[in-house]
Design brief:
The structure is a single chain. The strands form 2 sheets. The protein has a 6-stranded antiparallel beta sheet with strand order 1-2-3-9-8-5. It has a 3-stranded antiparallel beta sheet with strand order 4-6-7. It has one domain: OB fold (Dihydrolipoamide Acetyltransferase, E2P) (Beta Barrel). The radius of gyration is 13 Å and the shape is globular. The protein contains 3 helices and 9 strands, in the order E-E-E-H-E-E-E-E-E-H-E-H.
């Protein structure tokens, strides 16, 4: 299972990569494996300011539908529209082309509340 070290992780299996004041958010390799084949994404939070742990969308797989949670507070500034026609990309490349949204961070200190790669590996190995 992939767990890149340059990312922050949540207990809900989202990841965030920070570049300046922008965060790119997706779901982890663990999450996509647990969900199975992803068939649909609904993310309608563009231009919305959301708080930590608020729902920014839903992800539908053959097995289930799950909410997607904000790892940090921020304004959604971009949605990966290429996933509308190809949601399975999340299964193939969850840390690359399968990213979900980009946000303008409200408070970078919230990153301190997230998991490191090592801590996330421990969480998922239980």
């Amino acid at each position: 299972m992939e767990t890149p070290e340059n990312l922050y992780y949540t207990n809900d299996h989202e990841w965030i990569k920070v570049e300046g004041d922008t965060g790119t958010i997706g779901i982890t390799d663990f999450a996509q494996r647990e969900l199975g084949d992803i068939v649909y994404l609904e993310i309608e939070s563009l231009n919305e300011s959301l708080e930590t742990e608020e729902v920014f969308g839903t992800i539908e797989a053959v097995k289930t539908v799950s909410d997607l949670f904000m790892p940090v507070s921020g304004k959604v500034i971009e949605i990966n529209t290429s996933l509308e026609d190809n949601p399975e990309v999340v299964n193939k490349d969850p840390f690359g082309e399968g990213w979900l949204i980009k946000v303008e961070l409200s408070d970078k200190s919230q990153l301190d509340n997230l998991l490191t790669s090592e801590a996330y590996k421990e969480l998922t190995s239980v």
